[in-house]
Amino acid sequence: MMRWAALFLWSGLVINSKNKCLKKQRMIKKQNRKSSLLHIIVVLVCAVKFTYGQDIAITHGPFIQYLTDNSVVVNWSASVDCVSWVEYYEEDGSNFYQKERLKVFSATGGLKNIGKPHSVTINGLKPRTKYAYRIYSQAVTEEGDLGKIAATRVYKKQPLYFTTLDREKEQTSCVVLSDMHENGPKVGLLLNNVEWNKTDFVLLNGDFVNNATGEEAIYSVLDTCVAIFAKEKPLYIVRGNHETRGAAARELDTYFHFPQKEYYYTFSSGTTFFIVLDSGEDKPDSDMEYSGMADFDLYRSNQAQWLSEVVASDAFKNAKQKIVFMHIPPFSKKEGNEWHGDLEVRKKFMPILNKVDIDLMVCGHKHSYSVIPRSQGRNNFPIMVVDHESRVDLLIDKSGISAKRFDMDSKLVSDLFFGSK
C-alpha cells in the first residue's frame, strides 16, 4: 500500500513539474512574440522616419524669373518639406566640381525656409555676364533633422545657365502666350519654332490654369515651359481671372516671384519698360460664383494709385519704349456687351495710361485675336488681344514694335508693325 502511495506521489510531482515547464515555455513564447512584434514596429517606424527624412526629388523646375542686369530669381518645388539653395559661379569653362561654389539659400529673416516650393534670389551679379547654376533641396524630418539631398545633375552633364541683362540693349525680343488653360501639349506646339538664341523672355498673359486647385494645375503648363526654355530664359506671369479661383489661388506667390508680393509689377529688358497690371475677376464682387470672397473693386482702385506713381517715376520716363501687359482688355470689338471687369479696367487704368506715352498694350481673355487701333482720347495707343491658339513674337526697338503671330503648326498668320510715336 505504501508503495502505491509513493508511486502516486511521485507521478503527481512529475506531472506538476511538466505543467510548470509547459507554462514557462508558453510564457517565453509569448514574450518572444511580443519582442518580435515590438521589433517589427520599431523597424517600421524607423523605416517611415527614414523615408520621410531621406527620400526627396525635385518635382518641378527650376525656372528663372525677374532677370535683371545684377540679379535673378530661381524657383522650383521638391517632393517633401526641405531647405533649399542655389550654387552658382561666373562661367569660366571650369568643371562644376572644381571648387566650392557660391551658395544662396531660400531664407527669410535669417532662417532657412522649410517647405516644398522654394524661391532663391541671387543679387550682386555682373551685367552682361553668363553664370552657371545648380539647385539643391535637402529633406527635413518632423523633428527638424536634415536628410538626403536632391539636386539638378552636373555629373557628365552641363550645369544650367543664365546671362544677366544689358540695360543699354536697344532691342528686346519676347514671346507672349495667353489663355493656355492647363494645356501643356498646346504650349509645346506653339513654342515649336521659337528662336531661343534671339529671345529675351516669355510671358504668360493670364489664365494658364482653369482653376488654381493645387500644384498639379499650377504646373500643368509650367512643366512644359521648364522643359523647353524656363531653366535658362526668364518667365513672367500675368494673373488672369482664372488664377484667382481655386484652393491654391491665395498661394500663387509661393510658386512664382512677384516683386513686393503684389500681382502687379514692373520690369525692364534693355531700354524697354514693361508694366504688368492685374485686371482681377471679370464679374462683380457680389456675383454668386465668388461666394462672398471677392474684393477686386477696391484692389483695382489701389492698383490705380500705384500705377499713377509708376508713370511718374524716372524709370518709366527714361525708358525708350513702354509696353503694358494685362489679361482683360479695356475695349473689345463688341461695344455695349462689356462685363464688369472690362469696365473697371477701362475706368481706373485707361485715364492714367492715356496721359503718358504707351507704345502698346497686350491683353488676352477673349479667346479671340484682335487689334484695336489707336483712338485719341479713348485709347491713345494700340491694343493687341492675343487668342488661345496662337503665340505672338514681339521685337521691340527704337523704330517700333514688330508683332508676328504663329499658329500651332508654326505658320505665320499675321505680321504687324506698330511704329514709334
Structure description:
The chain is α+β, with helices and mostly antiparallel strands. Helices cover 27% and strands 30% of the residues. The chain has eight helices and 21 strands. It has helices at residues 2-54, 184-190, 215-230, 252-255, 296-311, 314-318, 340-348, 350-353; strands at residues 58-65, 72-90, 102-105, 107-108, 111-112, 115-122, 130-140, 146-151, 160-163, 172-177, 201-205, 235-238, 265-269, 272-276, 321-325, 360-363, 370-372, 383-385, 390-397, 400-407, 412-419. Strands 1, 2, 3, 6, 7, 8 and 9 form a seven-stranded antiparallel sheet that branches. The chain has a six-stranded mixed sheet with strand order 12-11-10-19-20-21, with no helix packed on it. A six-stranded mixed sheet has the order 13-14-15-16-18-17, with no helix packed on it. Helix 2 (184-190) packs parallel to helix 3. It is globular and about 85 Å long. Mean pLDDT is 90; it is low at 1-15 and 37-53.
Q: Secondary-structure element order, as H and E?
A: HEEEEEEEEEEHEHEHEEHHEHHEEEEEE
How far do the termini sit from each other? 135 Å
Instruction: Estimate the strand proportion.
Output: 25-35%
The profile of the biggest β sheet is: 7 strands, antiparallel
What is the total tally of β strands? 21
Morphology call:
globular
- Structural class, judged by helices and strands? alpha+beta
Question: Multimeric state of these chains?
Answer: single chain
Fraction in helix: 25-40%
